[in-house]
Design goal:
The structure is a single chain. The protein has no helices and 11 strands. It is mainly β.
Amino acid sequence: MKDLEVMETAAGHVGLKDYLALHEEHGKGITRRLKGSNGEVVWEYKGSSDDVPLQISTNVKDVFVVSLHGSWGGYNLKVTTLDPVTGKKTNEYILTSKADVHSPEDVLLVGANSASPIIAWTDKSYSNLKVNILGKSGSIQS
């Protein structure tokens, strides 16, 4: 298991909430939405076999799957946006980070926040913090 998140709903649903589970199977990242009441699979999304699954995050309208994209020794960060109801991919973008991210430990934070979930990492010298608000492709703040 790479990551597990509780699904937040726009309507503020009371009761058992569904879960998102991220794990790796046969070299592919698999994201599943599981019913909170019984663990039954609602939907499943299979990522690219070239990517290293890292974490999942959500806001009230999207699910974000963050993975390391590229080869060992220098990765870009790939953000795949999924529809929370169907699990279908709605968007995908690459954040240039090869000079900074060489392993999963180099990513400091993938934070879930109902308004603005973020991903954060630093440059190699640890002098600049880099942040992307998930869902905003190409926008890296230093």
